[in-house]
Amino acid sequence: MSKENNNPLVSIALCVYNGERFLTEQLDSLVGQTYSQIEIIAVDDCSTDASVKILEDYSKRFEQIKIYKNDQNLGYVKNFEKAMQLCTGDLIALCDQDDLWDLNKINLQVAHLADNQLIYHDSRFIDEQGQDMHRKMSDVLHLYKGNQPEAFLLINSVSGHSIMFRRELLAEILPLHPDFFHDHWIAYVATNRGSIDFIPQCLVNYRQHTSTSTDILNTRKKLDKTYHENRDVTKLKRELKWLKHCLSYEKNKDRAFINHFVKLFEQRITSLFSFRYAILIGKHFDILYHNKKLHKSSRIGFIYRQMWGLKAKTIWADLFAKKS
């Protein structure tokens, strides 16, 4: 390990693209970390604003900042892949350009990592203007700790901005598939290789944008009253593709279960409904839906809705489209 005073070097992988509006605040929270053994790997993905100039100004004042500029735009996921590959630390922390870190974030994560493959934490939501939205990640999701990858087959509770993981995981998680969220994949692989844990403290102010693709706060449903995820055909197909990606991981702890789960899930694509799938998720509900905030009294109705296949969803989607 790279150590000074028995503290491992932590690499912060910062991906930047047209982030001038929030980048200065984020950089201040990075260089102000109470943990001293850090390097900041900033990779700019062909920004057309003042992002690079901001990075260069900071790098002149803070030697721990190293700047890399892409020759062509790689996109969000592949830019993170490149940033991770450039990291030299024993531990790697992922960083978005528009959040705000608690100054003790790295120090606390290093202290709590223990024998886990990955450590993450709770986060506080802020709006685009930086105002507190009075909600935390743990208000929306059950945060998972343990060593069962099945918890990440359907729902992710590990946000990229909160992740710190051991360098050894890089060989397992790379290359990243551009169609899937990198944090979801890292969590899935980490629980296959060992265990993960979380710190219940909010260590990041997580900025929410109206155009975000993750929709953690379910804004799409609030804005579009006709939207319902159980009639979202595209979502169902995307989930199947993700499950097949999980199955492709060569070191799955329980390949037989994953394979069986994928086969039953795929039956939903060709069927009106699948009783066998409903029975399976009912039997393993506690782990498959651990990360979802759901009252126990709603479980039976939820399982019933998951039973319906793509053909039924397509019919419902067409009917509701005509009504609207």
UniProtKB/TrEMBL annotation:
The answer to whether the entry has keyword Transferase is yes
Source species of the chain: Dyadobacter luteus
GO MF entry, a single one? hexosyltransferase activity
Superkingdom of this protein's organism: Bacteria
Upper lineage ranks?
Answer: Bacteria, Pseudomonadati, Bacteroidota, Cytophagia, Cytophagales
Q: Which UniProt keywords apply?
A: Transferase
Q: Where in the numbering of this chain does the Glycosyltransferase 2-like domain appear?
A: 11-173
Q: Does the keyword Transferase apply?
A: yes
User: Under which name does UniProt file this protein?
Assistant: Glycosyltransferase family 2 protein
